Amino acid sequence: MILGTIRGTVVSTRKCRNLVGFKLLLVEPYFGDKSQLFVAADTIGAGIGELVLVTTDETTQHALDRSAPVDAYVVGIVDAPPQLGK
Amino acid sequence: MILGTIRGTVVSTRKCRNLVGFKLLLVEPYFGDKSQLFVAADTIGAGIGELVLVTTDETTQHALDRSAPVDAYVVGIVDAPPQLGK
Amino acid sequence: MILGTIRGTVVSTRKCRNLVGFKLLLVEPYFGDKSQLFVAADTIGAGIGELVLVTTDETTQHALDRSAPVDAYVVGIVDAPPQLGK
Amino acid sequence: MILGTIRGTVVSTRKCRNLVGFKLLLVEPYFGDKSQLFVAADTIGAGIGELVLVTTDETTQHALDRSAPVDAYVVGIVDAPPQLGK
Amino acid sequence: MILGTIRGTVVSTRKCRNLVGFKLLLVEPYFGDKSQLFVAADTIGAGIGELVLVTTDETTQHALDRSAPVDAYVVGIVDAPPQLGK
Q: What does the record list as coiled-coil region(s) (chains A, B, C, D, E) (predicted)?
């Protein structure tokens, strides 16, 4: 999974019907290339600046109550930034 | 999901029968390496210059009415460029 | 999907039985890092130098008549190089 | 699969119910870009500093007893660092 | 698929039960970033120094007799290094 920080929201009025009901969050990778921001769907309610855990590709479907065209999904809010070596 | 800008269309007369009926759009990533353009299938009707939301890999199938060999699919037109921090 | 140019063929006599019957083509990405050549299976009959459309990962299976261990598959031959902005 | 070294743990109290019961480990890639740390779920019991084998995307599901939104999973602890050429 | 050269083997005594029976080979990409070595499962019997064809992600399952947590699998031994343009 990817660790990332929520940097904003994305609004899409004209969208695929199966995407209705998901909040769309802009995620900045915590590790690696921080310029590679991506969009993750969320129903946990993560806020701007929070550190989250995102699963990707088809594995997102195992967190959803119904199938949806979502390749990145917030599966947890991380309690504290990871401490390397602990 | 990937945020991207529509930069053009791709025409393929000799193609796989399951690909017939999809518009093929050239997408430039909004974040990260802008040289990594890719092709996404579209039925929402996104136009050149519009900012779109693209889902990838097998998750595309959850937006389609029939299965198709499509690993990138436009699932929404974004209302406005994202504001970081909002 | 990935746009790529056919640069050669790959021959593999000792191979997995489900791979028999596919032509194996060496594809150079049209956009991004051109050193990242990869191999795609093909049954459309694309030739050396032709510009093709390749789908990847499990979505390849939606173009095949039988399941096969193929993570890149040629799904179309592109009529002309894409014109950015048109 | 990815070879990686366990560098820490990630704690997420507010998380998706299907993620409960998995230890979440911070993994540093052994080869390639070491800055691209990611999070893998684990039930084998790998410890900090150990070299592990991680499978990704939907293939994680073939190691689990129940489906879970996990796109990286520890499938083995490696006996010794690999010797190139042996 | 990825073209790669076998550079070594990986031994993992403490591993997931579904991984038992597979040889684990260290693969160096033939094209692109050669530092990005990864591990592929093999039952064809590829040896050190041989050039192989590797399929990835869930498509590996279409080469296996039983499902396994394997995201890279050797599906062929390549007869000769590819000749660009032929």
A: none
Tell me whether residue C52 is in a domain.
Answer: yes
Q: Summarize pLDDT for D23-36 with one digit per residue, the tens.
A: 999 999 999 999 99
Structural domains counted in chain E: 1
Q: How far apart are CA D38 and CA A2, in angstroms?
A: 5
Residue of E58, E76, E82 with shortest CB distance to C16: E76
pLDDT at residue E83 in the model: 84
Q: Is residue C27 part of a domain?
A: yes
Q: Does residue C62 sit within a domain?
A: yes
- Cβ within 8 Å, pair B70-C60: no
Q: Report the chain B residue with the minimal C-alpha distance to residue C2.
A: B38
* Residues of chain E with C-beta less than 8 angstroms from the C-beta of D36: none
Among D57, D50, D44, which Cα is nearest to D26's?
D50
The parent domain of residue B52 ranges over 2-77
Measure the CA–CA gap between A45 and C69, rounded to whole angstroms.
Answer: 39
Instruction: Give residue-wise pLDDT tens across range D44-63.
Output: 999 999 999 999 999 999 99
Among E45, E39, E31, CA closest to E77: E45
Contact A38 B76 (CB under 8 A): no
Q: Is B85 a domain residue?
A: no
How far apart, in whole angstroms, are the C-alpha atoms of residue C51 and residue C7?
10
Q: What is the pLDDT of residue E6?
A: 98
Query: Tens digits of per-residue pLDDT, B1-51?
Result: 999 999 999 999 999 999 999 999 999 999 999 999 999 999 999 999 999
